[in-house]
Every structure is written in structure tokens, then in C-alpha cells.
Request: fold
Amino acid sequence: MERYHPSEVYELFVRHMNTPRVVVDNGACETATLVQVHSARKHGVLLEAVAALSDHGVCVRKGYISSDDGRWFMDVFHVTDAAGRKVTDTDKLLARLESALSAATDALPRAVACDSPAKERLCLLELVGVDRPGLLSEVFAVLHDLRCGTVDARAWTHGGRVAALVFVRDEDTGAPVHEPARIRRIESRLRHVLRGGARGARTVLLDAAAVGNLDRRLHQLLNEDGEAGRRAPAEAPASTAVAVQEWGERGYSVVTVSCRDRPKLLFDVVCTLTDLDYVVYHGTFDTDGDHAQQGVRLELRITDRRGLLAYVTRVFRENSLSVTHAEITTRDDMALNVFHVTDVAGRPADPKTIDEVIHGIGTDSLRVDEERWPRLCSTEGDSAAGAGLFSLGSLVKKNLLKVGLIRSCS
Reply:
């Protein structure tokens, strides 16, 4: 029988007394699903809640964050699906939130399960480099040439830099890539493509479960990348405002972010504050439904095969399309990929070019996902969605802009 130290048992008792409680209610609001989260305060718990909402694909329209003396907090979120409707799979959303919060507040160590069992047998590549048109095409072409099959991947661009997480395995056998000589060759080839010097490519040989939330890891890679900070615009866009006010008499600072709304905006804000070791005690988040331009969202569903990503991204490059964000997933023998694309100058892609690409790859496999973010291309006016968050420290403003809260392609 496994034994625990008395202090561990007491801590577990306290956690059980303060077990996170989640309510998902479709009847409380006419226009959105209401999500209430009650939990004991622990650093990172708010991020887990917001990340769970983001991973489920819901949009946070409004949010209220409140804490008493730092020991207990209550969060309320008004969420919809991507089309602006109430969430229909409320049971799945409830289960995801309860699972995420229980893992975040558990006092005793336990094994963390992977999102996908296949990831346990994969090698993780962390890539950081200079962004340019066609870069992802070159990366996937190199991996294909080195007989590495890409199973999952995430990529972001910001400030002239790109960060990516790529899960690979041997293309012939499906086994992990772990030979030191082969790993050195992969890193060398990718560093040359990324033009990022010694930090351009790094192989992580560990259980993929240890990576945690992939979007958060991408945040950290760009935040740690000094070049991204130097290459980022010195000033935020005209429609963006970040203000920090010191409230010394109350022991905290007030951070206000006002900008065009976009997917995962709240996650980006909370993620950055958490990684900077700031604690959010109180806050509000509100949107007016105006989404920032993210590029055309293309969904690829096709039977997986060798060289698929190298081929698809080469077609994008040959048609002068630039990938600003990518999510690569493989389930059994099916590739389920998402690409956000613009022209090489970062402007909206020509619809005729999109049509040519779709017909070139296959109309049954590639399509424009107009349902998920139907208002992404709204350009009327400069109305801004405001997010008022409370935190600590005056470094917040600098880092919000540096890691791309305003312009990151998430």
C-alpha cells in the first residue's frame, strides 16, 4: 500500500474540500452559454480554465474574474461557438473543464496523459527562425527528404519570426527518431533553413505529455526569442492600446488592453501574465463582435501519405500564399490540417488564387472554412474589443507587445 507524508495527506484533504466546481448553463443568457468556475486559488489555474475553453473551440464573448483574498476565485465566461451560437455539446465542455482544473489543483503527483496516445512514440522538434514566404514548405520538404513523417505540428508567426512545434517519427517504420547522428543531421538541416543560428532547431527527447499545452509552449518560444522582440514593431497598431496603472495603496496594478478581437485573445493575455509570474486577482473581458483579420482559413482532410505536407505547402508557395498559422494533426490514416494563409505581403489572399489552390489540391479534400470564423474579414471601422485585466508590475506592457498579444497569429 502506498504511503504519503502527513503534510501531503492534509494538502490533499484541503484540495478535496476546495474541489473545483464548474457549471455550464445554456438557460441563463439568451445569446451565449454561461460557464462558471469556482476553485481554490493556485497559480496557473485561471490559465488552465481559459486554455480548456480555447482548446474546445469556443469563443469567449465576455468574462469576469474575481478573487477574495487570493485563496479562492470565481470566474464567469459568456461563450459561443465560432458562428456566434450557443454551445451545443455542453456535457463535453463541462468534462473538459473539470478534467483540466482537477489536474491543475491536484496536490499529489500523478501521470499526465497525452492528448493522443501516438504522441508518446514521437520525437518533438522545437523550431524558431526568421519568417519568410514558403518557409514551412521548405521545413516539411527537408523532413520528408530525411525520411521523417510529420504527425502533429503547430506554427505561429510574429514580428518577422516563426515558432513551431513538430512531432515526427520515422517515415518508414513509424518508430521514434532517437539516433544521435540522425538527430544532429536533422537539427543541422533545419537550422540552415530557419537561419536561426544555434537556437534555430532543437530536438526534445521526452514524453510528449511533458510539453503540456502546445499554444502556451509557442508563447514561451517566442517570448524567449530575443530576435522576435527586436524585430517586432516599436509601436502597436493605431487601434491597439495597452495601459498600466499602479495602485500602490491596494497592492496591485491595473492592466488595460483594448484592441481588435480575434480568436484566443483572452488565452494570449492570461498566458503571458502567467508566464511572467503575475497573478490576476480581478478582471473583465468584453467584445463587440469585431474580429481582426487572420487570413483565409483552409481545412485539409485527406488520407495521409508520405510527403503530403511538403506537397501541400509547396502548392501554397507556388501560388504566392504565406502560411501565418498552422495546425497539423493525424488521426489513424487521416490528415486533419488547418492553415491560415495570406498573400506574401500579409494582405488578404486573392479569392481566385484560393480557388486555384483548392482545385489543384482537390475540392473534396481542401476547403475554405467559412463557418468557423464568419466575421474574420470584417474591416468596417476601427471598433475595438476591450479587455481589462488586473495584474502586478510595470513590465506587462512591454511583454504584451513583445510576445504578440496584439498581432500574434493564433
